[in-house]
Automatic annotation (TrEMBL):
This is Putative gamma-glutamylcyclotransferase. SUPFAM superfamilies: Gamma-glutamyl cyclotransferase-like. InterPro entries: AIG2-like, AIG2-like_dom, GGCT-like, GGCT-like_sf. Pfam families: GGACT (PF06094). It comes from Flavobacterium hercynium. Residues 4-103 form the Gamma-glutamylcyclotransferase AIG2-like domain.
Length: 105
């Protein structure tokens, strides 16, 4: 199993059902030393507002989110779901868990 940290859209049960055809179990966690930045992404019907993780100069900045246990196949689906504005990177969370997170490309 892989660990995936989510701070946004993937926490939605509706999105999980569309993407994985199941809902995921999550555990709250935090990503320290990073912050969220506003991002506009062009979609089928225009521009949409999202947020993306970026490193912060302040090591006390914290992003609150959840960790999911996902399969390699699930992770491949998320790779396709996320736009090219995001890249998947490995991070250490406040809990000590090493997880994947999608950050600014």
């Amino acid at each position: 199993m892989e660990q995936l940290f989510s701070y946004g859209t993937l926490r939605s049960k509706e999105v999980q059902m569309r993407l994985f055809n199941k809902t995921l179990t999550s555990t709250p966690d935090q990503l320290l030393g990073y912050k969220l930045k506003s991002l506009k992404i062009e979609e089928e019907f225009g521009m949409a507002d999202y947020v993306v993780v970026v490193p912060s100069d302040n090591h006390e900045d914290t992003i609150h989110g959840v960790v999911f246990n996902v399969t390699t196949e699930d992770l491949a689906k998320v790779d396709l779901f996320e736009s090219n504005a995001y890249r998947r990177v490995s991070v250490k969370l406040n809990s000590g868990i090493t997880a994947w997170v999608y950050m600014e490309s």
